[in-house]
Every structure is written in C-alpha cells, then in structure tokens.
Amino acid sequence: MSEVISEAATEAQPVILTENAARRVVEIMKTEAPGSMLRVGVDGGGCSGFTYTYNVVTEREPDDLVLEREGATVLVDQISLEYLRGCQIDFIDDLMGRMFKISNPSATASCGCGSSFAV
Q: For residue range 18-69, what is the model confidence (pLDDT) as tens digits?
C-alpha cells in the first residue's frame, strides 16, 4: 500500500521523495554500478505533451537538485525541475502493478497510465 505523505514541497525541498520510492531506488541500485543514482526528468512527448523519464547515472551535474532519503539518491536537472516543482515521487505496488508515480500539482492533464502530462 502506498504511503501518504502529508508534507508539502517547500522552497528548500521543491520535490518530495517518499519513503516507498526511496526504498525502491535503493533496491534497484543494488544491481547497478557502485555510486549509481536515479535521475528523474521530463522530456517532450507522450500522449499528453511531456513524459517522465527515469535513468540510472553515475555522475551528477553541478546544478542538479539532489534528493537523499533512506540511502537513496535521486537527481533532477534544473530544466526538469521547472516541471516537477511541487511534485511527490512515490512508488506504488498494488494490483495494477509496481511503478514509480509522480503526483504533479502543475499538471493540467495526464494520460491514463500516468507516464505523461500536460501543463
């Protein structure tokens, strides 16, 4: 069951990484090169205009937003941050499947699978 986080994103922490998402990132990184991190981003495309991207990387950029929780490190580049500000990154495991879920208060529309959105 997905954990509900009541805290809102703030100026100091503009994107929230839930405990469930952090645990899943740690699990995924166990099979990757030492020092690997998850990069969450936004690209143009998808059925709603923008799509969320997830990539395993070993390098940070100097201007990345760095989210650290429960031993997990998640990076967001500055361009993607403009679309992800105020978001909560969660990981759900239910009857419909296992996946990262981004709750984006700036999205005006999203596709049925939740992988793309419009602003």
A: 999 999 999 999 999 999 999 999 998 766 678 889 999 999 999 999 999 9
Which tokens in the block code for residue 67? 């989210």
**Nearest C-alpha neighbor of 47 from the set 115, 119, 100:** 115
With contact defined as beta carbons under 8 Å apart, do 69 and 82 qualify? no
Question: Structure pTM?
Answer: 0.82
Buried b (16+ CB within 10 A) or exposed e, 96-116: eeeebbbebeebeebeeebbb
Alpha-carbon distances of 49 from 40, 102, 116, rounded to whole Å: 17, 16, 7
3-state secondary structure of 24: helix
If we measure between CA atoms, which residue out of 114, 118, 117 comes closest to residue 2? 114
